[in-house]
Amino acid sequence: MKVTETTIEGCQALLTIELDTADMQEAMENAYQRLVKKTEVPGFRKGKTPRPILERYIGKDRLIEESLDEVLPKACSAAIKEQDLKSFGTPGVEILQNDPVIFKAKVPLPPKVELGDYKSIRLSPEPVEVSVEIITNMIRQIRHEKATWEPVERPVKDGDLAVMDMESNIDGTPFVNQKGVQIGINLESGYPAPGFSEALIGLKAGDEKEFKLRYPDDFAKPELAGKEPEFKIKVHEVKEENMPPEDDEFAKSIDVAEIQTFAELKERMTDNYRKQLENSAEGKFESKLVDELVKVSTAEFPSNLVDMEYERLVNQQLDRWQQQVGSEEEYRELLARVNPEDLARQLRPQAEERVRRSLILGQLATAEAIEVTEEEINAEIEVMLSGIPEDQREAQRPGFEGPEARDEINQIILSRKTMARLKELAGQDAGETPEAGDVKKPVKAAAKKAPAKKTVKKTEKAVEEKEEATE
């Protein structure tokens, strides 16, 4: 075997390798021994066909292809060692010719990451302010949900519920035809056609009306764009929404044991909303911090890392799509409409950016001597198990204790501690940078509970998706 050409491009080496005859002869003989046992040749018992006859029967190229499965990995490994390279993944191989065998090996090399002056980054989270108007609207929405509808003897107005018979057509073709249908009157709604609610304002029980409406030329449904439906309606009843008042009885109707008064309900909703805002602000703050770290740093990495991350993103997208549809048939129909090239244009840049950010954060952990102890991993496992019913915890424990699971938990904790360190550095006043690895404040667990019958892999995925939602 000899390496005829070596080219280093970024974080990958391109080797052109020619195999020696001796290397191929042994591999060819082993390939013959495998193929002769499963190939039926007329006039010979299976396993007894002489090699020259088998070679003529199946073709020499077929024998070479079979032998390459054995010889290429060994040749790649030897060439990498000969060139004093450190492979960072499985090399990609392209056969150039069969006789003699010459192939190219694309060898991924370790990433090269250089941190910039990250200790000069200064950034603070945005302050959180709870809007009184939003809380008021949230409470109003609950009141709407608990409202009753009472008949009234007056004309229709915005916000009412009208009971009616409806006949309609578009160019003589039946459109919406229903008896006793209840339609909410909402001037901002376009159902069943733009302007329908306006046409009913002022009508009262017993009134009839005929009118024509028009869909915009740029309507979302092309089959209705520019169409002019004709309606004939008869109002049978007008109902008015009767929302419960903002009092203690309304608060008790929410059926939360700790809430007995309206003041307590408002306080609870305000606190919950504030926590949502704080979590969102924290996520955005962390994302901005990493953005600043990436700006001052550089990372060069082999394409196989992007390939793996891209595959993971695609699988996540497929999972989301499958959860959004109602059946396997709908899922297959959805996949049939997916353009792989469009998917790659959408997700591959994300994969590349994720790899870059992950490598730079990993280098920061190394620079700051951040480590995870076995005690921290054990404590995290107990936190995850705490979300599982007590009688099932021991049965689920092995899924968290295996080497692969512990390594994933280690990465979760390491990422958390690295982010805590970055936030600590970014919040320091000039001249007050703490020592490397000195994370003073305890960091709350990112995943407090692990659902029953879920592995740590799914727990990690949930943490990642929560982080994505804040970016």
Automatic annotation (TrEMBL):
InterPro entries: PPIase_dom_sf (IPR046357), PPIase_FKBP_dom (IPR001179), Trig_fac (IPR005215), Trigger_fac_C (IPR008880), Trigger_fac_C_sf (IPR037041), Trigger_fac_ribosome-bd_bac (IPR008881), Trigger_fac_ribosome-bd_sf (IPR036611), Trigger_fact/SurA_dom_sf (IPR027304). Pfam families: FKBP_C, Trigger_C, Trigger_N. One of its GO terms (molecular function) is peptidyl-prolyl cis-trans isomerase activity. Residues 442-456 have a biased composition (Basic residues). Residues 154-231 form the PPIase FKBP-type domain. It catalyses: [protein]-peptidylproline (omega=180) = [protein]-peptidylproline (omega=0). Residues 425-471 are annotated as: Disordered. Residues 1-141 form the Trigger factor ribosome-binding bacterial domain. The keyword Cytoplasm applies. It is found in: Cytoplasm. Its EC number is 5.2.1.8. Residues 261-423 form the Trigger factor C-terminal domain. Signal peptide: none annotated. Keywords: Cell cycle, Cell division, Chaperone, Cytoplasm, Isomerase, Rotamase. Involved in protein export. Acts as a chaperone by maintaining the newly synthesized protein in an open conformation. Functions as a peptidyl-prolyl cis-trans isomerase. Consists of 3 domains; the N-terminus binds the ribosome, the middle domain has PPIase activity, while the C-terminus has intrinsic chaperone activity on its own. Belongs to the FKBP-type PPIase family. Tig subfamily. This is Trigger factor. It comes from Candidatus Dehalogenimonas loeffleri. The gene is tig.
